[in-house]
Amino acid sequence: MIRNPILKGFNPDPSICRTGDDYWIATSTFEWYPGVQIHHSRDLVNWRLVARPLSRTSQLDLRGAPDSCGVWAPCLSWADGLFWLIYTDVKRYDGNFKDAHNYLVTAPAVTGPWSEPVYLNSSGFDPSLFHDDDGRKWLLNQQWKHSTDSVGGRPRGTAFDGILLQEYDPVSRRLTGPVRNIFPGSSLGLVEGPHINKRAGWYYLTTAEGGTGYDHAVTMARSRDIRGPYELHPAVHLLTSKDAPKAPLQRAGHGQIVETPDGAVYHTHLCSRPLPGTRRSPLGRETAIQKCAWKEDGWLYLEQGGLVPALEVPAPPGAAEPEPDRPVEYRFDTPALPQDFQWLRTPYPERLFALTGSALRLFGRESVGSWFEQALVARRQEHHAYRAETRLLAFDPDTYQQNAGLATYYNRFKFHFLAVTHDAAAGRVLTILSCPGDWPDGRLGFPLHPPVPVPDGPVDLAVEVRGAAQQFFWRAGGEWQPVGPELDASVISDESGRGEHGSFTGAFVGMLAFDTSGRAATADFAAFSYAPG
């Protein structure tokens, strides 16, 4: 069986394609760098992260991008001996505008080398490239309307103004011909995330609708002509959890069709697993997959029936058993950063960190939550319960403006940070900086009164998360001891603070340093571990 989600933790907007017996899924990375995650599988059951293609300044520079902007909804496809990756770089979130720029890069292999980007358009986000069997290529994307009419002071219409279609010329490397609005969406509204699949002379259009919160859905339509008109699926939606509040996979929507070599059909989708009794999802939007079947009426349906996605679905013949979750320990004695880790926004990581041969050295830059240079190196939270540990090998602050330690982080308004810093009276101390989702003010809380003195030399820091509860620990050569109060881990989630429709990433845990004095104080970390609990 396939056990959902197949990509745990922040991995939304899954675009899937197959080459021979190999399957590939690309997911959104938003403000995290490098851009786009690509996972590989041979059986749809077990997946391995193999590439993050957008790794150069010319491809992606996210400095100054607000939280939850950056890379939205990539589309990965294979044609003409190349992988084709389409992506949006969103520069603005708040207000009526989005400033969403769409690009194309190609590569002979997922591991690269990936080309310089080709600019496509800026009319909306969630671009998708369809390779027709007559050799023509078509770009689809959501159209963003920055203003809506109103009647009596109430809005009429929506900013999600349908799905656009335009032909792409791979020779001249530009869009050509008329732009057509081919699909307005269903009555659910907020149509986005288009993908086309062709079968038996029909063009099947799947889109995401209902927003990316608890009304999310995959909507299906079809047409004999790629330009439309498109008729809606008899059930309108292929899958959704919007009417099943007790389903374990919530916020289900936005995915793509894939066929196995023997003709079986699956559909990926994003989902979330809220903490029990809450509508908060620290793990963010994850990737799941459902087995589907074509029925006699020529429409696709979930194989298990209904619209609600299942936790377990049949795997292709010969698939392996799902690999168990295991603890992971990282030693920073390698020349490259372990692949599980990312940083924020900048294409110049050498300004943030270096591998010294025995440690990960962070250079304290701007404050925690900066949109430009923030020295945070972190990995995804993939489980509702886990323990993470790190050893701060060397850090000698001489001012309270220098801090380094262990953080659980969502964005500038949602984090908890156990930091070594300097206190004028006590010297080297531990403190906690906490911002519990208080958008838009973003006020810091300081739960440690007074700060805890820390001896010179290495210090071990740890965090345990159990659902909505988070506790920090520390030691310096002795036994582990708790530090500070129990904190609310549920605020490190999509839905806290700004609300369920305003945040798109997921919780990270990792090593953080800042130096607002401007002297770039260094902090060396010898190791990091993550253990599901």
Q: What would you note in describing this structure?
A:
With 533 residues, this protein is mostly beta strands. It has 2 domains: 2-149 and 158-313, Tachylectin-2, Chain A, CATH 2.115.10.20; 328-532, Sandwich (Jelly Rolls), CATH 2.60.120.200. The strands form 10 sheets. Strands 27, 29, 30, 32, 37, 38, 39 and 41 form an 8-stranded antiparallel β-sheet that branches. Strands 31-40-33-34-35-36 form a 6-stranded antiparallel β-sheet, with no helix packed on it. A hairpin with a 4-residue loop joins strand 29 (353-355) and strand 30 (360-363).
Question: What labels describe this entry?
Answer:
533 residues, mainly beta, Tachylectin-2, Chain A, 48% strand, globular
Question: Short summary of the structure?
Answer:
This protein folds into two domains: 2-149 and 158-313, 5 Propeller (Tachylectin-2, Chain A); 328-532, Jelly Rolls (Sandwich), CATH 2.60.120.200. It is built from no helices and 41 strands.
CATH superfamily of the largest domain: Glycosyl hydrolase domain, family 43
If helices are DSSP runs of H or I spanning 4 or more residues, what is the number of helices?
A: 0
**Percent helix among the residues?**
under 10%
As residue ranges, the low-confidence spans are none
Class by SSE composition: mainly beta
| Relative strand content | over 45%
CATH class value of the largest domain: Mainly Beta
Silhouette: globular
> Which assembly state applies to the chains in this document?
single chain
Radius of gyration: 23 Å
CATH topology of the largest domain: Tachylectin-2, Chain A
**Chain-averaged pLDDT:** 95
CA(first)-CA(last) distance? 23 Å
Instruction: Tell me the major beta sheet.
Output: 8 strands, antiparallel
Could you say how many structural domains there are in total?
2
CATH architecture of the largest domain: 5 Propeller
DSSP summary, beta strand count: 41
